[in-house]
Amino acid sequence: MRQLLTIAWNAFTELMRQPVFLLLMTSSSVFSIFLACTPYFGFGEDPKLVKDSVLATLLLVGLFCAVISASSSVAHEIMSGTALAVLSKPVGRMVFLLGKYIGLALTLVVLTYVNLMSALIASKIAFTAYGDADKTALFLFTGAVALAFLIGGFSNYFLNRNFTSDTVAFVVILSTLAFFVVSQKARVDAMFEDHIDTDYRLIPAALLILCAFLLLAGIALVCSTRIGVIPSLTVCSLLFLLGLMSDFLFGRWAEPAWIAFPSHKSLQSAPFTSEQKKLLSSVIEAVDLDDDKQMDASEIKSIRFEDLQLMREAGMDGRWWAKAIYAVVPNWQLFWLADALENEKVIPWSYVRRAYAYVIFYLGAIMSLAVMSFETRELN
After folding, report:
1. Cα–Cα dist 326/254, whole Å
2. Residue 128 pairs with which residues in a beta bridge?
3. How many of the other CB atoms lie within 10 Å of CB of 128?
4. How far apart are the first and last CA of the chain?
5. CB 182 within 8 A of CB 121
6. Average of pLDDT values for 68-86?
7. Burial class (CB in 10 A: 0-12, 13-18, 19+), 252
8. What DSSP character marks residue 349?
9. 199 in helix, strand or coil?
10. What is the pLDDT confidence band of residue 193, given thresholds at 50, 70 and 90?
């Protein structure tokens, strides 16, 4: 356990000292605040556009940082021979990989935390149709980031400490202070109370995005045991794009036809033969009690066993290859719930718990694959 914690802490501090991490963290957080001060002329929908934009910024920056950090943390040490020096001591390869991943996960938590602080501030100071953006909060947050850079430069010049790691630490502290100051500041220009309070619904949304970071970091860790940084980035990018389209590419083939195509309109584009479409159409007409030409959840449950058996015999209960691919490829849309914040809706914490349970089990499989790949890797 001591070896695991030591490797994890060393990996965490090493990633904190990377200038690219500091650049991504500060630029994305400041850019999120800038987005809140931009007029969108959205006819009262400006706050929603701001929230979608800041969450999208967090997603893109975090995914890029996860892949780059995971690849450089392992692949670079393998190429430079550092991994061989560590493993020459009584340290197993599994402990080495797990420690690296824990350090990487802590780094992603720091990145998510700072961007979450900026997102919460942006939700409060967003430009609306009823008032101007809060420029004071903009200068307060950017000033906090600039002060963190100054303190980091001071500690580096006078105390001979690492500039990047100290600056990251002070960005975390000062961005938190800036959030508390802005959250207590009243919006005197707003006409409606709905535009005053900080939107804390962004917290579960950001935690779900962190799930995507952790998954992609694990995948990048598997790739980095065999290939370099650029090939790992390419593989993870392709897998990310594939996961975004998994519902369309594999989901409609994996799910039973009566669930994937529950209406006459969706049935028209279904990849079935005319006989299969005719069979499903007759089932829809049989259970469609409200005559809206589609089946809701209760109507799907009322489908007769004989009809289900006929559709299964017709090969409409999902393809095995689609089910396998759909289960293996992560569906990134499950972690993007910005649309769920519309009209005062909230993301249930039970959904967040299920998402993290899914991440834990998926990471267990991913890390097992990474360990098997690393065990057979010859280090020289």
Report:
1. 7
2. 131
3. 23
4. 27
5. yes
6. 75
7. buried
8. H
9. coil
10. very low
Query: Average pLDDT in the 137-165 region?
Result: 91
Same domain, 263 and 228: no
List pLDDT tens digits, range 286-340.
Answer: 887 777 778 877 777 788 888 888 888 787 877 788 888 888 888 888 898 877 7
The amino acid at 53: S
Residue 194 has pLDDT above 80, yes or no: no
- Are residues 149 and 191 located together in one domain of the fold? yes
Tokens standing for 308? 């289900």
Candidates 126, 122, 131; CA nearest to 188 is 131
Q: Write out the two tokens for 318.
A: 């999902």
Cα 167 to Cα 147: distance, rounded to the nearest angstrom: 9
Q: Is the pLDDT of residue 247 over 60?
A: yes
Contact 218, 373 (CB under 8 A): no
Same domain, 180 and 101: yes
Q: Give the integer Cα–Cα distance in Å for 9 and 71.
A: 17
Backbone angles phi, psi at 75, to 5 degrees: -60, -40
DSSP string of 43-107?
Answer: TT-HHHHHHHHHHHHHHHHHHHHHHHHHHHHHHHHHHHTHHHHHHTSS--HHHHHHHHHHHHHHH
Burial of 334 (0-12, 13-18, 19+ CB in 10 A): middle
Whether residue 324 lies inside any domain: the answer is no
Contact 253, 319 (CB under 8 A): yes
Q: What angle do CA 138, 118, 339 make, to 5 degrees?
A: 120
The Cα diameter of the chain in Å comes to 81
Count helices and strands (H / E) in the chain: 18, 0
What are the residues whose beta carbons fall under 8 Å from the beta carbon of 310, sequence distance 6 or more?
Answer: 279
Q: Could you list the residue range(s) of the whole structural domain that residue 7 is in?
A: 2-245+332-375
pTM: 0.83
Instruction: For residues 237 and 263, state if they share a domain.
Output: no
Query: How long is the chain?
Result: 380
Instruction: Give pLDDT tens digits for 35-63.
Output: 887 766 655 566 778 888 888 899 889 88
Q: Is residue 251 one of the residues assigned to a domain? A: no
